[in-house]
Amino acid sequence: MSLACQIEGKFPFFTTLGGGGLKGGLHTTGAKWFMIESQRHSYHLVDPSPWPISGSLGALATTVGGVMYMHSFQGGATLLSLGLIFILYTMLVWWRDVLRESTLEGHHTKAVQLGPRYGSILFIVSEVMFLFAFFWASSHSSLAPTVEIGGIWPPKGIGVLDPWEIPFLNTPILPSSGAAVTWAHHAILAKKEKRAVLALVATVSLALVSTGFQGMEYYQAPSNISDSIYGSTFFLATGFHGFHVIIGTLFLIICGIRQYLGHLTKEHHVGFEAAAWYWHFVDVVRLFPFVSIYWWGGI
Amino acid sequence: MEKEMILHSLSWRFLTIAPCDAAEPWQLGSQNAATPIMQGIIYLHHDIFFFLILILVFVSRILVRALWHFHEQTNPVPQRIVHGTTIEIIRTIFPSIIPMFIAIPSFALLYSMDEVVVDPAITIKAIGHQWYWTYEYSDYNSGDEESLTFDSYMIPEDDLELGQSRLLEVDNRVVVPAKTNLRMIVTPADVPHSWAVPSSGVKCDAVPGRSNNTSIFIQREGVYYGQCSEIRGTNHAFTPIVVEAVSLKDYGSRVFNQLILQTN
Amino acid sequence: MAEIELKTAPADFRFPTTNQTRHCFTRYIEYHKCVAAKGEETPDCHKFAKYYRSLCPGEWVEKWNEQRANGTFPGPL
């Protein structure tokens, strides 16, 4: 008995497709039906795409341009900007293609959805490690300050922000935004599309308020990133956290638009889930800089 | 004349009696211990070697027997045994006991190296430079500026006298008293270095911005040779260390004379 | 025969590790705090000066003295 027969025998046509791909795709047309019929497995074999090579070239241009720029070579800044534009453009069109493949062509069956799920989780784990390194650096420098900064923390002459002003105000905003995104999730699961859009608008608004406050805080900060190891670790940790907030906000805005357009359904909303996970990561992580850098490190 | 030369050659080949505590031609083991720490290192080496030989003999025997008895010609029908509780327990327990017997004396030695039990009598600072060592004796200062400080450069090959060791001899030796607790403070002024004297059992890294401390108790008078042990550039091999241990009385007069020389 | 006193900074339980950087720095701070409190002339502070001179590389002391003169010394004096 051939392998193909075995698979066919074990998995009749409809079970092979799984629920998600068919019921999830809103725009399944007659032509699609024909295409899916000829496929005897639940996996998505992607079409050839130019984006991997264009992304790689963008990364190459960015690294070479970055080194050239930092060593004051002629044309370094141009190459660096070109590389960054290339990468950003690749991200845009690649994700556009993924959305077309999943939402419009219905390729993302339940089995295919596992990939982006695991991918998102592993990505967030790597992000946790990334930020952990900055908190480690900050704690390393502040728990036993070296003699070069006089063995005291914060170092002499460094102005420190009062943790109970903007930092404290800003700390509950992100978890509130996290609560709003959970509200949006429940709305999606309850098939309340309009309410979900509303909840996402609330989430994004809170996120923008938080970023605005962070910007104000930086604007008013009495020290900068060049001010000793204090400034370096402070702005590296809080700045990268702020950068992650901005990434999460963009992710949520895209999800909001897709929710408004009716892309997200009760059964199939992996993109939204990934955004929500990422957002919870960002809002929980906010508590660490507040406690260890602003509060404890500022005493 | 010829006989003398042959004798000389033979003595260098077989009798390698070193004139002082330095590396010898064809040396295999450690140099003679000058401190209790080095003695401990040598004992630990012997301890571990006991187990090494035991393991070597045992494993070789098993290997040879296996190759011999399970050879295709001796044993044409392969055994089908895949499991044996007793042998599996034995071969797990025994190899985990041996590292324990090695670990206990090893940790004891390691921590005794770090420990400063008694207050030292003298502090000497060794400051690594590219490519020489500076030594500071500052216990007898009454101000920040005056200090018994000198640089210790390697003697170039062309300036060596008969009997002196190539790449090991320096112009100014570190003079220390024997049978006295010494505190060495090691730090560099430029890049990382490492202050090492094998017969003292000391190898102390010099890290920029940090001062490391190691204690030495030299048990006998003598001249001890070492080399910088952190590879860091062109002339890394030309930064030797020479410690001269003298009696406490001689140390006192030498330091006093030096101080008088410096202040006048 | 010349007589010199064999005496140096004692082992300090606050700094039991190989790294003695803070030992030296702390003694330097202690001396200057003592001088600030009791004045230059009292013999009480002498021992701290002896300690930090024994423990600190000359170059470090030189640098710190310069920083104190310029008002840029980072330590808690």
Automatic annotation (TrEMBL), chain A:
Q: Give an example GO molecular function.
A: cytochrome-c oxidase activity
Q: Which Pfam families match?
A: COX3 (PF00510)
On the tree of life, the source organism's domain of life is Eukaryota
What is the reaction catalyzed? Answer: 4 Fe(II)-[cytochrome c] + O2 + 8 H(+)(in) = 4 Fe(III)-[cytochrome c] + 2 H2O + 4 H(+)(out)
- Transmembrane segments in this chain: where? 77-95, 115-137, 196-214, 234-257, 277-297
Mind telling me which GO cellular component terms the entry cites?
A: mitochondrial inner membrane; mitochondrion
The protein's name in its UniProt record: Cytochrome c oxidase subunit 3
Q: In which organism is this protein found?
A: Musa acuminata subsp. malaccensis (Wild banana)
From TrEMBL, chain B:
The record's InterPro entries line, in alphabetical order, gives: CcO_II, CcO_II-like_C, CcO_II_C, Cupredoxin, Cyt_c_oxidase_su2_TM_dom, Cyt_c_oxidase_su2_TM_sf
Name a single GO biological process. ATP synthesis coupled electron transport
Q: Which cofactor does it need?
A: Cu cation
Where it sits in the cell: the answer is: Mitochondrion inner membrane; Mitochondrion membrane
Any one cellular-component term (Gene Ontology): mitochondrial inner membrane
**Gene Ontology MF, one:** cytochrome-c oxidase activity
Membrane topology, as annotated, equals:
Multi-pass membrane protein
UniProt keywords, alphabetically: Copper, Electron transport, Membrane, Metal-binding, Mitochondrion, Mitochondrion inner membrane, Respiratory chain, Translocase, Transmembrane, Transmembrane helix, Transport
As its record notes, the protein acts as a catalyst of: 4 Fe(II)-[cytochrome c] + O2 + 8 H(+)(in) = 4 Fe(III)-[cytochrome c] + 2 H2O + 4 H(+)(out)
Q: What is this protein called?
A: Cytochrome c oxidase subunit 2
Q: Please report the organism this UniProt entry assigns to the protein.
A: Musa acuminata subsp. malaccensis (Wild banana)
From TrEMBL, chain C:
Q: Which Pfam families match?
A: COX6B (PF02297)
Identify the InterPro entries for this entry: COX6B-like, CX6/COA6-like_sf, Cyt_c_oxidase_su6B
Where in or outside the cell it occurs: the entry states: Mitochondrion
Which family does this protein fall into?
Answer: Belongs to the cytochrome c oxidase subunit 6B.
CDD domains the UniProt entry points to? Cyt_c_Oxidase_VIb
Q: List the disulfide bonds.
A: 24-56, 34-45
Q: What is this protein called?
A: Cytochrome c oxidase subunit
- Organism taxonomic ancestry: Eukaryota, Viridiplantae, Streptophyta, Embryophyta, Tracheophyta
A Gene Ontology biological process noted in the UniProt record is: proton transmembrane transport
User: Which of UniProt's keywords are assigned here?
Assistant: Disulfide bond, Mitochondrion
Its biological purpose is as follows:
Component of the cytochrome c oxidase, the last enzyme in the mitochondrial electron transport chain which drives oxidative phosphorylation.
Main location group: mitochondrion
GO cellular component entries: mitochondrion; respiratory chain complex IV
Where on the tree of life does the source sit, at the highest rank?
Eukaryota
Task: From the UniProt annotation, give the residues forming the signal peptide.
Answer: none
